[in-house]
Amino acid sequence: MLEIQGSGEIRLTRGNTAVLEITPYMVTPDDPVILSAGDKVLFTIKNTLGKVMFQKELGAGDQDPDTHALTLNIEPSDTVNRPEGAYTYDIVLVYSSGEAYTFIPKSPFILTPAVGTYKDLTGGDGS
């Protein structure tokens, strides 16, 4: 199960699939950034010690030309072997020039327990 709070907190059941629609912006969400070749959006989740749990990278080719949204897919394999608990995430826009702007600041990412998972059903890790 995926749940996104108004505060930006994300709650996801361990081993589940999640699809997030992300629109990069500079000042307000009503002012989207149109990515150019070489620009990236990084979605990073870290544990409490600051170690990267996983990171997803999206680019100009992933951006919808009409809505300017990017679709971020969290696969079962990204979380199935991770312990339940509190993590943090942020989303950063990195221009090809190297300039970086965090448009979703550090926020809680809670990985909740699962009773049954993809791994249980298939014996695999979700990849």
Q: How does this structure look, described?
A:
With 127 residues, the chain is mostly beta strands. The chain has a single domain, classed as Immunoglobulin-like (Sandwich). Helix content is 7%, strand content 43%. It contains 2 helices and 8 strands, in the order ββββββαββα. β1 and β2 (10-13) form a beta hairpin. The longest helix is centred in the last third of the chain and has 5 residues, at 118-122. The radius of gyration is 15 Å and the shape is globular.
In DSSP terms (H or I, runs of 4 or more residues), the helix count works out at 2
Strand order of the largest sheet: 1-2-8-7-4-5
User: What is the H-and-E element order?
Assistant: EEEEEEHEEH
> How many angstroms does the end-to-end distance come to?
19 Å
Domain count: the total is: 1
Brief summary of the model shown:
The protein is mostly beta strands and 127 residues long. 7% of the residues lie in helices and 43% in strands. It has two helices and eight strands.
